[in-house]
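Quick one:
INPUT:
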């Protein structure tokens, strides 16, 4: 990622959904690949403005 072009955005999380947030974080950052792959495939249609 080009430092001159990248954008840092703050993400605010609602503490009422801490369980769901923890599950999502674990799914995306955990060691188990299959749940991460399934999440990406299921949600890829919602991605916009990808820098690839």
């Amino acid at each position: 990622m080009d430092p001159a072009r990248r954008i840092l955005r703050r993400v605010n999380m609602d503490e009422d959904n801490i369980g769901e947030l923890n599950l999502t974080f674990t799914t995306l950052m955990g060691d188990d690949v299959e749940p991460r792959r399934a999440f990406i495939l299921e949600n890829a249609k919602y991605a916009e403005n990808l820098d690839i």
